């Protein structure tokens, strides 16, 4: 029942975000849509921002769990961007609201999770310090997040395939090059 309730609240938030920004949505509205009471909402989530973070975490991170290798990271990035395009109003209205920081944190975490497997795979037998691995992961997850935030800010007008191809072109061989330089 808990997962069903969380998903119902998530669907209510996504539906409501399709018509108005996050900072204009209340818990009261969401629970009315779901025929729940406020206490039920607060049993599951601290606030609307926690619900939003749960949506991004369960839907986006869950979708890329099998794509964090050197051979599949581009597929994982495609999944993330397709998710964002499919939920365009959710992303844009989150960006335009007071929850922009939550969107950035969620995107950064999703991208970090995507890249950690790539870096671990490429450095498996290499002599690269943990701090250097962390630096690489932070650099690229923040760079990707910045690009995607700009994409959202511009109403996501560039097709996802073009975004993935552009990022892939920039990244082609860069992980290996950087790892080699830091060894």
Instruction: Tell me the number of strands.
Output: 0
CATH topology of the largest domain: Tetracycline Repressor, domain 2
Note the beta-strand portion. under 5%
CATH architecture of the largest domain: Orthogonal Bundle
Q: Tell me, briefly, the overall form.
A: elongated
CATH superfamily of the largest domain: Tetracycline Repressor, domain 2
Regions with little confidence, pLDDT below 50 for 5+ residues: none
Mean pLDDT: 86
CA gyration radius, whole angstroms: 18 Å
Helix content: over 70%
Q: SS-based structural class? A: mainly alpha
Quick one: biggest sheet?
none
The total tally of domains equals 2
Secondary-structure element sequence?
A: HHHHHHHHHH
Describe the protein's architecture and organization.
The protein is mainly alpha-helical. It has two domains: 2-44, Arc Repressor Mutant, subunit A (Orthogonal Bundle); 52-182, Tetracycline Repressor, domain 2 (Orthogonal Bundle), CATH 1.10.357. Helices cover 75% and strands 0% of the residues. The mean pLDDT is 86.
In short:
This protein has 2 domains: 43 residues, Arc Repressor Mutant, subunit A (Orthogonal Bundle), CATH 1.10.10; 131 residues, Tetracycline Repressor, domain 2 (Orthogonal Bundle), CATH 1.10.357.10.
List its salient traits.
mainly alpha; 10 helices; 183 residues; Arc Repressor Mutant, subunit A; 75% helix; Tetracycline Repressor, domain 2
